[in-house]
Amino acid sequence: MLLQKYFETRMQMVDECLNEAMTFDKRYAGQLKEAMVKAVIPGGKRWRPLLLISIFEMLTGLKKNNKQLPDVVKAACAVELIHNAAIVHDDLPSVMNKKDRRGHPAIHQEYGNAVAILASDALFTLAFKLMGEIKDAAKANLAIRSLAINSKSYGMIGGQAIDLASKRKVMKINTLRFIDMKKVGSLLLASSDIACIMAGAEENTRQIMNTYAVNLGMAYQMIEDIEKDYARGSDGLDFSDDYVPVSKASYTGLLGFDKARKQVESLLDDCSRSIKPFPNNAVLMEFIQMISERLP
User: Fold this and answer.
1) Residue 288 sits in which domain range?
2) Tens of pLDDT along 156-168?
């Protein structure tokens, strides 16, 4: 119950911050601003911003009325804006050509490709505006640098580029891991890294948290493959030997169900061991548990 209350209150903080940041005067470029809002609100699970806030609060001891928390929430929302900006670009016909997102038409389906591209670009810039509002200038500078590094061509955008370039090639396991480490893991890495920056964590702690976040993301992505890339067997209920992977360019297609599952378990075990020595780790343990519960 306490963990549920924690997630509810932090989610509310994130949503309030995003709503405030995206309250626009729509007299000018109204369609663009409407598309920006629809790309972010109501949004998905918000687990990147929640992870950032959770790591920060674990490292700072869950202090009540922490004066840094409003700035940490802004940083968390900046990461979420980058994530949603990337989704808008990713859904475009010239990229992954997704027609639906979160049960609604993709932004380009509703507003056209041009407005979708501009909305995504505007969300990127809005993210860095939020980061620039962090009161501690030194921490703001480091946090902005971390978000930029993890978003650029060696980070999330680079992962998108390699994913696109690999569509007509035979996928190799190392390439798939690289794509997910960048496309999925980079913003989780940014979340943990920024949390450590805001908390003033030592370098060793920063490395542990960053590894935890990336491993968590990789486990999540592999479970998605296990869930969606196996066709149902004759009984339609349980995973069994007669299941055939739908895609050869997936973890299940490249490794097989059993090996993919074992790798997920190993990643989650590593996550658990890495944060076990830290006090106030219940929320981060809950992230592991929530992902683990999805594993067939």
Assistant:
1) 2-292
2) 999 999 998 988 8
Would you tell me the crossing angle of helices 185-199 and 137-151 to the nearest 10 degrees?
Answer: 170
Alpha-carbon distance 180 to 72, whole Å? 26
Residue 151 and residue 187 in contact, taking contact as beta carbons nearer than 8 Å: yes
Closest alpha carbon to 200 in 145, 136, 148: 136
The count of domains in the chain is 1
Contact criterion met (CB below 8 Å) for 213 and 192: yes
* Cβ neighbourhood burial of 25 (10 Å; 0-12, 13-18, 19+): exposed
Alpha-carbon gap, residue 64 to 115, rounded angstroms: 42
Task: Give 47-57 pLDDT, tens digit per residue.
Answer: 999 999 999 99
Cα separation values, 256 from 239, 240, 243, 244, Å: 12, 12, 10, 9
- The pLDDT assigned to 285 comes to 96
- The torsion angle over the Cα atoms of residues 161, 40, 70 and 278, rounded to 10 degrees, is -60
The dihedral sign for the CA sequence 173, 175, 180, 185: positive
Where residue 262 sits, what CATH number does that domain have?
1.10.600.10
